[in-house]
Predict the structure.
Amino acid sequence: MIRGLINHAYYIMEQINYSELFIDGEQIRARRGNAILKPHNVGNLVLPTGRIVACDPLAFHEVSPFTVGVLPNEYPVILSLANFDKEQIVAYAMLKFSDEKPVRWEMPALTNSQGTSLDEDEATYVVDSGTGCFMDVEAAQILVEDQDDDQKDDTYSSKVLDEMNKSRNSNLSWANISLNPTTKANIICFSTGVGDGFYTSYFGFGAKGDAVCVVTDFDVFDDEELVEYFV
């Protein structure tokens, strides 16, 4: 199943410019109804190391950053909200490093805690709590250590849920949570499409080969709908 998802991901990556899906007012015709896309900035993510993790923040047990890194800094996280007739859904999440337009897209590999690249199948972004996130590897290490302490793990999970509930609107919510007051490392969480699933992230690269953004696709639109949009 995962191999099939990866093959689809490569096919879609060749057809789509994800940055266009963050343009206010863009419309996509879908089986669930016509959707109008609206970007929404949910805050800056601080990257003390420049090594990025994308995962389910309530159901991960190992630090697995992307092999692609960026300069340590803080960068905006932008959600692309799909507005249907009776609901609003997080369709895409972007961590933006530059205003430069991407000219190509790549599906990145992940590394384990020892820095070794994982097999392609292991790079799948699995969501079990209906929540995704971006964070620095430093923040991820804090959370993994806290999971070994049941009391801290319960406190963290409750904090994420409480913060997410503050912005909740139907099945849409997000939160910006500080994890290290010294380095200012934080985690930005958001609801994932219509819930749990297998979700893929793509890095966009500029003309000079630098990473300009990373986007996670929450499969709100199927392959045919997206390809038709970009034809």
